[in-house]
Amino acid sequence: MENLFSDPNYLVYLEEFITENRKEGFLKVLQNRTKHFTVAIEDVYQLHNTSAVMRSCEVFGIQELNVVEQRFGKKIDKEIAMGAEKWVDIHRFSTNQDCIDNLKSRGYQIIATTPHENDCMLEDFDITKPSAIFFGTERLGLSDEVLKQADGFLKIPMVGFTESLNISVSAAIILQNISTRLRHSDISWKLTEAELLAKRIDWTRKSIKDIDFITRKYLEKV
Fold first, then answer.
1. Other CB atoms closer than 10 Å to residue 2's CB: what's the count?
2. Whose CA, among 34, 98, 103, 221, lies 20 to 30 Å from 127?
C-alpha cells in the first residue's frame, strides 16, 4: 500500500474521480505547505486546544503536528478542527522522549516556547534551521524534560500584566509570524517533489467515497 503513494500513475487514475477545481485547489494549497517547521504539543489537557492548534497549522501551511499523549490522550475534536485533521499529518507519541528523539532524528532543532525573561523574542527567532516548536500544557507549561533538551527558547513579546497566553492563541501568533517570514525568505522551505506526490495522492484518496473499491480496480489493471 505504501508504494501507491509514490506511484504517479495511481494519482492520474484517482484524479479521474475528482473535479478539476478540486485538483487545482490541492496544487495551490500544497505550494504553500512546509515541513521546515513542525509543531509539537506536550500532553495538552483541554482537547479543544489541540484541535485549535491543528487548525492553525493547517491555516498557516504547517504540514505536520506532533502530539504527545502521555496522560491525557483523547481524540481530536472535529468541530473545532473544522476538517483540518484531513489535511494535516498527525504523529502521535506516548512519551515526550519518544517525540523528541523522533524529531531530532529527522533533523529538527527543539524550540521550547516559554514566557521566561531571557528567551529569544519572536521577531528575533532564526528561521533558517528546521525547527520543532514545542507548546506545553495549559496549567504548567512545558515539562523539565523538554526544557532541558531544548536547543533554543522562544517568547512572544507581551506588555500587559498577564504573563502567558492560551496555547492555541500562542501557536497561532507564532505560526503566522514564522511562516510569513519563511515564505518571504530564500530558504528552501517547500515540500519535495516526492512529498508533493504523496500528499496529492493522500488528499485525493480522502476526497473519494469508495476509495477501497477504486484502489482495488486500479491494482487489478496494473
1. 6
2. 98
- Looking at residue 20, what is its pLDDT? 97
Name the H helices within the chain. 8-14, 20-30, 47-59, 78-81, 84-87, 96-105, 144-149, 167-183, 193-206, 211-221
Report the phi/psi class of residue 141: left, alpha or beta, with left for phi > 0 and alpha for psi in -120 to 50: left
The yes-or-no verdict on residue 47 having pLDDT over 80 is no
Spatial CA neighbour of 66 closest among 105, 26, 31: 105
What does 91-105 look like in DSSP terms, one character per residue? Answer: EEESSHHHHHHHHHH
Instruction: Give the tens place of pLDDT for each residue, 120-170.
Output: 889 999 999 999 999 987 667 888 999 999 999 998 887 776 666 788 899
Angle formed by the axes of helices 193-206 and 211-221, nearest 10° = 120
C-alpha span between 201 and 164 (Å, rounded): 40
Per the listing, cell 497549522 goes with: 57
